[in-house]
Amino acid sequence: MYAIVEIAGQQFKVEKDQKIFVHRLRTEEGGQVEFEKVLLVDNNGAIVVGAPTVEGAKITAKVISHMRGDKVKVFKKKRRKGYQKLNGHRQDLSQIQIEDILA
């Protein structure tokens, strides 16, 4: 059984007991979180597609930890002009574990 769910503006294909990284959630570590924007549910071949979401379906998950992603360096340069700019960015992430898919 799997589902496609929208979490913090991104769509993820999730299964029970799967661990995924999502954008930082406002829930503390160890807390429970529910996602109700379920777009599709596949229950052993019986596919239910929402319009736009599946009625009554929700995903429950547990927040394992908060962390920061790898550093991404952004380098800009204009040749022959002496212009160089270096910026770095680290994304704030949350690791969650899917506990149950309720269809």
TrEMBL record:
InterPro entries (alphabetical): bL21-like (IPR028909), bL21-like_sf (IPR036164), Ribosomal_bL21 (IPR001787), Ribosomal_bL21_CS (IPR018258)
Keyword hit for Oxidoreductase: no
Record keywords: Ribonucleoprotein, Ribosomal protein, RNA-binding, rRNA-binding
UniProt protein name: Large ribosomal subunit protein bL21
PROSITE patterns membership: RIBOSOMAL_L21 (PS01169)
Cellular component, GO annotation: cytoplasm; ribonucleoprotein complex; ribosome
Sample GO molecular function, one term: rRNA binding
HAMAP family in UniProt: Ribosomal_bL21
Function: This protein binds to 23S rRNA in the presence of protein L20.
UniProt similarity note: Belongs to the bacterial ribosomal protein bL21 family.
Pfam families found in the cross-reference section: Ribosomal_L21p (PF00829)
Source species: Ancylomarina longa
Quaternary structure and partners: Part of the 50S ribosomal subunit. Contacts protein L20.
